[in-house]
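Handout, section B. The chain below has 128 residues.
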Amino acid sequence: MSGWAQVLLVGLGGAAGANARYWLGLWFRQQPWAQNFTWGTFVINVSGSLFLGFVAAWFRDRGGPGFLLLGTGFCGGYTTFSTFSLEVAEAIQKGRWDLAGLYAGSSVLAGLFAFAAAAALVKSDPAG
């Protein structure tokens, strides 16, 4: 498969995933029962992880365009939490619980720190 075909598959899947995330998130934000918890993000992350589990099990060993379109593209546009879940699960499957725990814990903490640092930098910017 050519490089351009790969780019097209990932791009099409990513566009579909990003749109699915946007519209599903919007729907959750409009629900009165969903106002006290981030249900949209929660459902998107869990459903993306579930879907990527199916996609990885089906396409990863078979090769071909399916994983590029649905795994890398759609799930990548829908949520990167699904990829994070896959990588932690792969480490566990290899018996590397230490690596899985380190990766999961450090990813969450580093992500929170990076977010807080960026927010603080923007707030301290005289132009902002």
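Note. The mean pLDDT is 89. Compare this with the example in section A.
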